[in-house]
Design a protein that fits this description.
Mean pLDDT: 82
Structural class: alpha+beta
Shape: rod-shaped
Largest sheet: 5 strands, mixed
Distance between the termini: 17 Å
Strand content: 25-35%
Bound molecules: copper (II) ion
Radius of gyration: 28 Å
Helix content: 25-40%
Order of helices and strands: HEEEEEEEEEH
Low-confidence stretches: none
């Protein structure tokens, strides 16, 4: 029929080209979005006391630099992080004496939930002194460049198609 004649086929070509350009833009934005996550630094003061941690379930984004500052509140405690194999211990702070803090600094490069447990036998319920670090792999659906690109793709692609179909409906194929 007249759908693939003259102007309509040219517009279809433009639509395909637009989508291609946007696909490339998508490929450019996504790595940037992930890279920006890597620049993030999350620091937590983890207070430890018999027999729990506070916060108990810190959450970070994949790629973030994480600083955990273990601060025992009553007796000496430790923190061993499963999956990452990291450990620190500390005694409670004493006024006038530096310390009272064990620091773990690392890049959260493994996604998932990782338990951490006390690394110092601190009492009868010591085995139950457990927390959990949640390393969330960033979903692309929450970053602005991705959403903007998707929106632009839909607008341009949909708009072009609507235009093509509109011209087809009004006999638009008959370019003068
Ligand atoms: Cu403990």
């Amino acid at each position: 029929m007249q759908f693939l004649t003259g102007r309509t086929s040219w517009l279809a070509l433009v639509a395909v080209a637009s989508l291609s350009v946007l696909a490339v833009a998508l490929g450019t934005f996504l790595p940037v979005a992930f890279a920006s996550g890597q620049a993030e630094t999350r620091e937590f003061i983890v207070e430890a006391s018999k027999f729990s941690y506070s916060p108990e379930r810190p959450r970070v984004n994949l790629g973030a630099t994480v600083i955990l500052r273990l601060r025992p509140q009553d007796v000496s405690h430790g923190l061993y992080l499963d999956g990452y194999g990291l450990e620190t211990t500390a005694a409670p702070a004493v006024p006038g004496v530096p310390g009272g803090e064990g620091v773990l600094k690392f890049v959260a490069d493994r996604p998932g939930k990782f338990r951490f447990r006390c690394a110092v036998t601190c009492g009868p319920l010591h085995p139950f002194m457990i927390g959990e670090l949640n390393v969330e792999s960033g979903t692309p659906y929450t970053n602005a460049p991705f959403l903007a690109t998707v929106a632009a793709t839909i607008l341009v692609g949909g708009g072009t198609l609507a235009y093509v179909w509109g011209r087809k409906g009004t006999g638009g194929g008959s370019a003068s």
